[in-house]
């Protein structure tokens, strides 16, 4: 996309985003606020998985950590709402860094497992330390109220506040990936060995990405507390980590814009699925997820490329391979080749 | 002491279930290169099918055998119709597809059979036998025996038959295998079919003690994943050993170690794995990754 | 422009959700996720509302029951509450399920001055502070009442009991355990061992093993059906021959005892407050036949022996009584009616009243009856035990 077109698209998006709280009722606006919250967290995960090539099934744990940090600061330490956001982000950044150090020895599935352990451990720890966290009863947190002089309703104010923070986080991510860290990160993902020989400090890059990703989840968690006003261990189960993972793939790995689409997906599709048929919610949601991946394996951000691919295929009548659709038997070995390569002795998941 | 042995044997029995599921995970990982998130739900679904057949009047043994066959077929179909489309592409895309399958199967099972709890008949008798002065349940011993039998069969299949050889070749080097005439696509289907049947077996073995509902395999899958990782994701022996280690340690920690408490006992196997992986990053039996510069 | 109407400051007033011929109720339930077994409650409630509608409705108004899935996740419950109140404009929120979910929404719902009634959880919070949350009220005998009943029973049967407890590590389990601890304070009943488990655990075998090795002579089993079954099975396998008290939620013959094997359930003690659909003594009771016929007619795929359907039927019945007791078609009038209830619901056990009294008594049902499993069925013991707060 040429820079001019891109700027135009971004401006249009921004205009729509700002207009939302004035076009819809509080329920809808609340949904969009949550979309922004998830987008921040999803963006963090995408930085780690998509750009940096590491896998994490424990993103929900940092999200929970950020949420509880903000909740405790606001409710028990009377910290003003706005301050709790960077505080949660910073704490999670530090936690992510601490976690990243030992985790770097692990790759692929093993890293996935250990992060999974994090996601499982956190609700348990929340319950264990119930003196602090109120445990299973959960904690109600006062939501930010619109200051009178703005003339906005609470839900509108909350949305716009979240929008500002989310926009900042997106710009930050975009800058990071364009800069030195971004280049190092992509080098590590694509050709780790070569990157090392070129002087990239592997350990530093990996731990930093873990920390950054966790920091994003922490900010998301704090914004989540503003939006929902309540935290409890039930809100932070494994489902959350899996939803974030689905979101980055659905949105498009290693894309900034993909995070927004992924967040829209995980917020709205389950609701629509249960609207269609309560009894078959999961069947519909799972089905939509699979169908989406079938049609757009590169995620939503890959749509332009996919359309070009399909157009080219029609023109040339050549079997395109897995992204193009059905496989013929003679393609199967080419296909399996890539799969087998991933499986045979590599012990790692390419991400 | 008697209690310790009972706890140990019980741990090995539960661990055998984790091992069976881990084997299924490893099978698919070796052939397709992806962790099948839906493995547990496929197993649960199969267990419900077996339950349905039993309720319809079939004797349990026949119901189980029929289910194994049906699951095998279903696994092959899923690979050919759904998974094949994604192979060779981005691995995470396929992972999300299996996640979608997980969600779908869980809901579908609930819609068909309801979300309530129910019993499942055991393939073994309810008795206990005396082994050297310790009372061990026939069921526990039976589960371990079945697992060992399965491992033996798999060993025979992979090491002593042409099909097994072809499957190993296809997993190791598909290009070369295709050149010598291995139908790689079919080998993939076989892998998924076997894994599905293994999962179904694990399901019918564990359902009598865990009771059957749509969430039967949710927690088991995590332990199975842990077992496979502990053993090294590309090793079948590793999966078995991993499963036993996890089953036993979870049981022992829960029974004997007080300060951990039951609420944190799931962290014990995970901690063990973390430590093992720090020392041996490819798992106990996994092939060491050697990267060529 | 249409969208701008969504921002209208039309609070709906006290008449939102109620018209000349309809009343709209909203409910948030776990139709998916780990607690999906409880969706049967919504099904039972719906059957009752359909039944009432088929017989003319409430004062000529048909009840519309809008249900949404929250997968037992508080953020979705919060969104559902907003949607039901703002978009669906329901007259009242009815029977929302789950302690954390209800705590997540009750501030908001009370601020909106929408009835938040007959919530499906046994926490005692809903009746404890009527002033702070006047629009919220529970229904079932709460965990404090239930544990008081167990404590009373033990004091009679085994005053020096040494109790081992297995409990679910969430609001439900903790509430019951704490209620029991409070109820047994000052008595000679002693809790000698406590083990918790997670809803995500595959098995409770090791917890049972630990409990069985304590010197307890009584086992208090605070579990949900799947784990109740596992605990009873483990109990039998371990040969742990103690007095077994099973909490009400886990006491279903269909969901728990039959899977385990009735021979392992002999002598287990529990409590009940509504008729057991499998108990032959109620088979010809008009309330039971009415329930079973309606379920067959309106929810043919439902299993009448699932106790959660009966629960849903009973609470919906209470709602209808409350609606019928309204003096005017307003939310205030509904709360007035609910805060001054004095009725008997047919499918509840004889002797169980549904009674409230303004701010003095915010607990509709405060009685249960002990039952003991003998032979093939639960046998109700003695009289209904009143355990008011």
Q: Any descriptors?
A:
heterotrimer, B: 293 residues, mainly alpha, two-stranded antiparallel ribbon, 11 helices, 2 strands, globular, C: 389 residues, alpha/beta, Rossmann fold, 2 domains, five-stranded parallel β-sheet, four-stranded parallel β-sheet, 14 strands, 38% helix, disordered N terminus
Explain what the structure shows:
The complex is a heterotrimer of chains A (351), B (293) and C (389). Chain A has 15 helices and two strands. Chain A has 351 residues and is mainly α. Chain A folds into two domains: 234 residues, no CATH class; 27 residues, no CATH class. In chain A, helix 2 packs across helix 11. Chain A starts with a helix and ends in an 8-residue tail after the last helix. In chain B, a hairpin with a 2-residue loop joins strand 1 and strand 2. In chain B, strands 1-2 form a two-stranded antiparallel sheet. Chain B is globular and about 60 Å long. With 389 residues, chain C is an alpha/beta fold. Chain C is built from 13 helices and 14 strands. A five-stranded parallel β-sheet of chain C has the order 2-1-3-4-5, sandwiched between helices. The longest helix of chain C has 18 residues. Chain C starts with a helix and ends with a strand. Chains in contact: A-B, A-C, B-C. Chains A and B meet through helix 5, helix 9, helix 11, helix 13 and helix 15 of A and helix 1, helix 4, helix 6, helix 7 and helix 8 of B.
Output mean pLDDT of chain A.
84
Contiguous helical run count of chain B: 11
Strand tally of chain A is 2
Poorly predicted runs of chain A = 323-351
Strand content of chain A: under 5%
**Ends distance of chain A:** 25 Å
Considering residues with a beta carbon less than 8 A from a beta carbon on another chain, report the largest interface and each chain's count: A-B, 70 and 71 residues
Largest sheet of chain A: 2 strands, antiparallel
Number of domains of chain B: 1
What is the secondary structure topology, with strand pairs?
The complex is a heterotrimer of chains A (351), B (293) and C (389).
Chain A: H1 3-23, H2 26-51, H3 59-76, H4 81-103, H5 108-128, H6 130-133, E1 139-140, H7 154-178, H8 180-190, H9 192-197, H10 202-228, E2 230-231, H11 238-251, H12 257-276, H13 281-295, H14 303-316, H15 329-343
Antiparallel strand pairs in A: 1-2
Helix pairs in contact in A: 1-7, 2-7, 2-10, 2-11, 2-12, 3-4, 3-5, 3-10, 4-10, 7-8, 7-10, 8-10, 11-12, 12-13
Chain B: H1 2-32, H2 39-55, H3 60-81, H4 91-113, E1 128-131, E2 134-137, H5 138-160, H6 162-172, H7 174-179, H8 184-210, H9 218-231, H10 236-256, H11 267-279
Antiparallel strand pairs in B: 1-2
Chain C: H1 2-5, E1 22-29, H2 39-54, E2 62-69, H3 74-87, E3 92-94, H4 99-111, E4 116-117, H5 125-128, E5 136-137, H6 143-157, E6 162-168, H7 171-183, E7 190-197, H8 205-212, E8 218-222, H9 225-238, E9 243-246, H10 253-260, E10 269-272, H11 286-298, H12 307-324, H13 331-338, E11 342-343, E12 354-355, E13 367-374, E14 377-386
Parallel strand pairs in C: 1-2, 1-3, 3-4, 4-5, 6-7, 6-8, 8-9
Antiparallel strand pairs in C: 10-13, 11-12, 13-14
């Amino acid at each position: 996309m040429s820079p001019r077109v891109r700027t135009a698209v971004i401006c249009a998006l921004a205009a729509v985003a700002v207009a939302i709280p004035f076009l819809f009722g509080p329920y809808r606006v609340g949904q969009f606020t949550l979309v922004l919250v998830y987008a921040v967290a999803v963006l963090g995960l995408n930085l780690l998985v998509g750009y940096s090539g590491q896998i994490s099934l424990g993103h929900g744990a940092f999200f929970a950590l950020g949420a509880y940090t903000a909740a405790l600061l606001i409710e028990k330490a009377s910290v003003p709402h706005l301050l709790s956001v960077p505080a949660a982000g910073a704490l999670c950044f530090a936690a992510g860094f601490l976690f990243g150090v030992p985790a770097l020895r692990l790759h692929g599935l093993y890293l996935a497992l250990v992060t999974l352990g994090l996601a499982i451990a956190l609700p348990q720890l929340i319950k264990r330390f119930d003196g602090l966290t109120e445990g299973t009863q959960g904690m109600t947190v006062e939501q930010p109220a619109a200051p009178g002089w703005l003339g906005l309703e609470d839900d509108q104010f909350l949305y716009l506040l979240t929008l500002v923070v989310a926009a900042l986080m997106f710009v930050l991510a975009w800058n990071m990936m364009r800069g030195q860290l971004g280049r190092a990160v992509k080098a590590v993902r694509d050709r780790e060995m070569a990157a090392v020989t070129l002087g990239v400090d592997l350990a530093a890059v990996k731990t930093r990405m873990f920390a950054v990703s966790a920091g994003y989840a922490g900010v998301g968690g704090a914004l989540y507390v503003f939006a929902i006003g309540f935290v409890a261990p039930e809100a932070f189960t494994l489902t959350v980590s899996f939803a974030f993972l689905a979101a980055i793939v659905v949105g498009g790995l290693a894309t900034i814009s993909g995070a927004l689409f992924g967040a829209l997906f995980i917020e709205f599709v389950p609701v629509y699925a249960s609207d269609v048929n309560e009894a078959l919610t999961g069947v519909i949601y799972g089905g939509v997820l699979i169908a989406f991946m079938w049609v757009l394996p590169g995620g939503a951000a890959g749509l332009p490329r996919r359309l070009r691919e399909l157009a080219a295929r029609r023109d040339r009548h050549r079997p395109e391979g897995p992204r193009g659709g059905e496989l013929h038997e003679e393609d199967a070995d080419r296909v399996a080749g890539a799969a087998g390569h991933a499986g045979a002795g590599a012990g790692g998941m390419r991400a | 002491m008697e209690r310790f042995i009972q706890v140990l044997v019980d741990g090995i029995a539960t661990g055998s279930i984790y091992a069976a599921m881990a084997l299924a995970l490893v099978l698919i990982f070796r052939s397709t290169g992806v962790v099948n998130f839906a493995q547990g739900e496929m197993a649960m679904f199969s267990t419900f099918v077996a339950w349905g057949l039993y309720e319809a009047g079939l004797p349990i043994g026949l119901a189980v055998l029929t289910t194994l066959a049906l699951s095998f077929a279903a696994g092959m179909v899923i690979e050919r119709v759904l998974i094949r489309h994604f192979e060779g592409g981005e691995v995470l895309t396929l992972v999300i597809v299996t996640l979608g399958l997980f969600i779908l199967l869980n809901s579908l099972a609930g819609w068909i059979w309801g979300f309530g709890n129910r019993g499942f008949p055991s393939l073994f008798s309810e008795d206990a036998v005396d082994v050297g002065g310790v009372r061990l349940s026939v069921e526990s011993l039976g589960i371990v025996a079945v697992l060992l039998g399965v491992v033996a069969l798999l060993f025979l299949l992979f090491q002593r038959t042409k099909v097994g050889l072809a499957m190993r070749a296809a997993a190791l080097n598909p290009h070369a295998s295709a050149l010598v005439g291995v139908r790689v696509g079919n080998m993939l289907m076989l892998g998924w079919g076997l894994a599905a049947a293994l999962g179904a077996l694990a399901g019918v073995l564990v359902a009598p003690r865990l009771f059957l509902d749509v969430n039967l395999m949710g927690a088991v899958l995590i332990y199975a994943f842990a077992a496979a990782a502990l053993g090294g994701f590309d090793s079948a022996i590793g999966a078995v050993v991993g499963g036993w280690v996890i089953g036993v340690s979870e049981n022992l920690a829960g029974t004997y170690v007080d300060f951990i408490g039951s609420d944190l006992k799931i962290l014990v196997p995970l901690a063990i794995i973390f430590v093992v992986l720090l020392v041996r990053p490819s798992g106990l039996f996994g092939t060491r990754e050697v990267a060529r510069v | 422009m249409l969208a701008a109407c969504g921002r209208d400051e039309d609070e709906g007033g006290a008449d939102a959700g109620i018209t000349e011929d309809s009343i709209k109720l909203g409910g948030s339930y776990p139709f998916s996720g780990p607690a999906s077994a409880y969706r049967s409650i919504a099904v039972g409630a719906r059957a009752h509302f359909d039944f009432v509608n088929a017989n003319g409705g409430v004062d000529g108004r048909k009840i519309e029951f809008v249900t949404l899935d929250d997968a037992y996740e508080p953020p979705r419950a919060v969104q559902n509450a907003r949607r039901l109140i703002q978009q669906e404009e329901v007259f009242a929120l009815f029977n929302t399920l789950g302690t954390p979910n209800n705590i997540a929404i009750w501030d908001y719902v009370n601020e909106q001055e929408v009835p938040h009634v007959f919530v499906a959880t046994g926490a005692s919070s809903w009746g404890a502070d009527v002033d702070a949350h006047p629009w919220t009220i529970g229904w079932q005998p709460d965990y404090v009442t239930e544990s008081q009943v167990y404590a009373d029973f033990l004091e009679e049967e085994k005053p020096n009991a040494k109790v081992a407890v297995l409990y679910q590590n969430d609001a439900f389990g903790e509430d019951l355990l704490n209620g029991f601890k409070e109820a047994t304070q000052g008595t000679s009943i002693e809790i000698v061992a406590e083990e918790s488990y997670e809803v995500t655990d595959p098995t409770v075998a090791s917890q049972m093993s630990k409990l069985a090795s304590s010197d307890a002579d009584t086992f208090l089993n605070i579990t949900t059906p799947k784990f109740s079954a596992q605990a009873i099975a483990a109990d039998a396998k371990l040969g742990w021959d103690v007095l077994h008290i099973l909490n009400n939620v886990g006491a279903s013959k269909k969901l728990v005892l039959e899977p385990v094997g009735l021979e392992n359930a002999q002598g287990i003690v529990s409590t009940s407050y509504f008729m057991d659909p499998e108990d032959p003594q109620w088979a010809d009771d008009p309330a039971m036949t009415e329930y079973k016929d309606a379920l067959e007619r309106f929810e043919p795929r439902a299993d009448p022996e699932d106790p959660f359907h009966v629960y849903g039927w009973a609470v919906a019945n209470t709602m209808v009584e409350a609606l019928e007791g309204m003096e005017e078609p307003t939310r205030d009038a509904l709360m007035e009616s609910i805060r001054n209830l004095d009725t008997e619901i047919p499918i509840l056990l004889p002797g169980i009243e549904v009674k409230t009294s303004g701010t003095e008594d915010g607990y509709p049902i405060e009685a249960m009856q002990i039952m003991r499993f003998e032979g093939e069925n639960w046998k109700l013991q003695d009289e209904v035990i009143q355990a008011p707060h």
